[in-house]
């Protein structure tokens, strides 16, 4: 199961799946898989499969400590700076655990046709 290679052709699938799972993990109200599939440009059946595959690959371990979050954040920013996508920030974000939580999404209103 470790034969996964992240590429520019599949990174959007990984990102949309991670966002979907993060929303389900942290929020009581979240959009359904069909919504994320539409945003991610994949079929609902593929989104459902990506969700299951992602969970098994991370051994259903969705909790990330602030220290691990900071480590990966720093590494991503470092890569972004090296690629010219980001400029170094002067302000230190400090303790990640003290960051405010994001507001919950507002459920989309159903369309009457």
Could you please describe the fold and organization of this structure?
The structure is a single chain. This protein has four helices and no strands. The chain has 113 residues and is mainly α. Helix 1 (11-26) crosses helix 3 and helix 2 packs across helix 3 (44-57).
Mean pLDDT: 82
Distance between the termini: 44 Å
Q: How many helical stretches?
A: 4
Largest sheet: none
Order of helices and strands: HHHH
State the shape: globular
Helix content: 40-55%
Beta fraction:
under 5%
User: Strand pairing plus helix content: what structural class?
Assistant: mainly alpha
Oligomeric form = single chain
Radius of gyration: 17 Å
Q: Are there runs of 5+ residues with pLDDT below 50, and where?
A: none
Count the strands?
0
Q: Would you kindly provide a brief summary of this structure?
A:
With 113 residues, the chain is an all-alpha fold.
Indicate the topology.
Layout: H1 11-26, H2 33-40, H3 44-57, H4 66-82
Keywords:
single chain; 113 residues; mainly alpha; globular
């Amino acid at each position: 199961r470790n034969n996964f290679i992240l590429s520019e052709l599949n990174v959007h699938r990984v990102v949309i799946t991670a966002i979907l799972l993060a929303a389900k993990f942290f929020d009581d109200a979240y959009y359904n898989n069909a919504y994320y599939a539409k945003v991610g440009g994949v079929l609902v059946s593929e989104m459902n499969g990506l969700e299951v595959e992602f969970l098994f690959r991370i051994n259903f371990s969705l909790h990330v400590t602030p220290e691990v979050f900071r480590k990966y954040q720093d590494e991503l920013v470092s890569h972004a700076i090296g690629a010219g996508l980001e400029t170094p920030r002067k302000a230190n974000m400090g303790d990640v655990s003290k960051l405010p939580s994001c507001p919950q999404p507002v459920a989309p209103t159903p369309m009457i046709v």
